[in-house]
Amino acid sequence: MACKAIAKLAWAEPTLIQETAIPLLLEGKDVLMRARTGSGKTAAFAIPVIQKIINLKHTSAYQCIRALILSPSKELCGQISSVVADLTLKCGREIRCVDISPTGDMQTQKSLLLDKPDIVVATPSKALIHLKASNMKLKDDLAMLVVDEADLIFSFGYEDEIKELLGFLPKIYQAVLASATLSDDVLSLKKIVLRNPVTLKLEEPELAPSSQLQHYHLFAEEDDKAAILYALLKLNLIRGKSIIFVRTVDRCYNPMLLLPSRQWEQFKIGACVLNSELPAAVRCLSVEQFNRGKYQIIVASDEKSLEKPDGGLLSHKEEKHKEKKQSSKRKRDKESGVSRGIDFQHVSNVINFDFPLDVSSYVHRAGRTARGNNQGSVLSFVSIREKPLMFAVEEHLSKVFNNQRVLQKYEFALEEMEGFRYRSRDAWRAVTRIAVREARLKEIKQELLNCKKLQGYFEENPNDLAALRRDKALHTVRLQPQLAHVPEYLLPAALRTESSAADDDQDAQEPAPPKPKENKRKQPVHHGSVKRHKYQARRSNPLQSFEIKGIKRKTRNTKGADAAASGDT
Ligand SMILES: Nc1ncnc2c1ncn2[C@@H]1O[C@H](COP(=O)(O)OP(=O)(O)OP(=O)(O)O)[C@@H](O)[C@H]1O
């Protein structure tokens, strides 16, 4: 049955970790699997879990919870349960899996658990709450325990919960730890969770090879970062789904405000924000909608705020102090993870608008693209103060890939982009702290209006609903409609024909000055054959020709830069 489901997922062959781990797990061994991010670890443990339950059900019809899968964040729990759902698609109602990680009605979760689903997916703290409340009992029947993203379990602060939780489990059960790294935390967890385990440490780099994943960097200061992003998007040099990573939650809203929704729409690109301060339901919905293709871009922050008001980076001590001070004001969800482990599907580009603060963060962000057998690229904007961070990543990647120079320079002649620079600088500066706050308030207001639970309240209190709707427009950033349209004179010469055509598409959505009537299709192809016409079009296409007058890229970068630009997967 699982095989039929796998066929439906169109997985032609197992990944390396699946090929090695599944037979060991089917033999009943405890396994610690370390394999790179995006290598298919979820199915590597989920398939044996499902198979074990099917086998046990053949020997005993007694219904009970037979597997507990723990993961550090709600997003990851949701993801695991949807992989289990995909893999049990052909099992009908025979195997039931319940995800109790979402914050919600405990009574509903209790009744789901009392129904004894075969598999329970939870964060450690949620599992513990239900175990303590006797809503689920595992002491007699649990056959399998899985801890996914084991390297994050302690760093997310679950050490005590895990230790306490083990007291609710039977003496004998099979256990699996899955992790992208073999950190000290994982080794400590291994000691307390696994018995005589087989350790699978695949001899493969922690990221996909450079034939599949290309890394680029581009030196740029704050104002220029915005201009470059604006130009890359407007000139269609970034194609396919992209994740733009920024350092802090507030900065998530900057690129969004710089390119306000109207403009994203004009790009025909849907964009949304993802960060740990959004409610879990909104985060999960954003990821789901992004995966379904509703949004082309996610602007995500995966770090806590490490920035000083003057723009410098905070020391660890300063950061802790700031966090303590802020904790009463701003609520960050401990059970949230953005770059770690989330299976954003078919992402062509990861753009580090802010460079990640350490090597492991870079690896995890980069791991959001080139997943499975897909192609991908990472483009990092690096300011002067971020250079040391970049050098650390460069050194690390070159060690991982046998002294190869992995991080390539993305050649981009910003001086040719003066027009973009001028326009975006203006818009970027309009994004003040107040504007960010207002944007976030607007988001909350929208959430209230969409909240199903409040629908009843609004029906009974229509005045409140009207007041909320009537509320003054919160968007204090002056929208600059001219940003949506890039006049031809702003473009580098080599891009004029193509991008003005792209703009023509956009112009179709907004009132445009009347143009002389002409039917492009009917225009004859002058001077030569169709082949020649195609050749000329190819020559003027910066993505296909090696030499670009406006934006200079060196030939050695062209292949990767094309991938970065086209993002074809
Ligand atoms: N055998 C396979 N063939 C093709 N694609 C696969 C296969 N197994 C899994 N995948 C796909 O690979 C992607 C990554 O899988 P998964 O999320 O399980 O990776 P992971 O190793 O758990 O990553 P992370 O460490 O980041 O959590 C998913 O989109 C999944 O659908």
Bound molecules: adenosine-5'-triphosphate
**What shape does the CA trace take?**
globular
Q: Tally of extended strands?
A: 14
The amount of beta strand, in percent, is 5-15%
Strands in their spatial order, largest beta sheet: 3-4-2-5-6-1-7
Quaternary structure classification:
single chain
Average pLDDT across residues? 75
What are the low-pLDDT stretches, counting only 5+ consecutive residues below 50? 304-336, 498-533, 539-569
Helix content: 40-55%
Tell me what the structure shows.
The chain is an alpha/beta fold and 569 residues long. The strands form 2 sheets. It has a 7-stranded parallel beta sheet, sandwiched between helices. Strands 10-11-9-12-13-8-14 form a 7-stranded parallel beta sheet, sandwiched between helices. 42% of the residues are buried. The longest helix is centred in the N-terminal third of the chain and has 19 residues, at 41-59. Residues 304-336, 498-533 and 539-569 have low confidence and may be disordered. It contains 23 helices and 14 strands. Among the domains are: 1-201, Rossmann fold, CATH 3.40.50; 208-304 and 338-431, Rossmann fold. Helix 2 (16-26) runs parallel beside helix 3 and helix 3 crosses helix 4 (74-87). It is 43% helix and 12% strand. Strand 12, helix 15 and strand 13 form a beta-alpha-beta unit. The radius of gyration is 26 Å and the shape is globular. The chain binds adenosine-5'-triphosphate. Adenosine-5'-triphosphate is lined by residues 11, 14-15, 18, 35, 37-43, 180, 341, 343, 345, 367, 371-373. Keywords: ATP-binding, Helicase, Hydrolase, Nucleotide-binding, RNA-binding. Pfam families: DEAD, Helicase_C. Residues 322-332, 518-537 have a biased composition (Basic residues). Residues 22-200 form the Helicase ATP-binding domain. Residues 306-338, 498-569 are annotated as: Disordered.
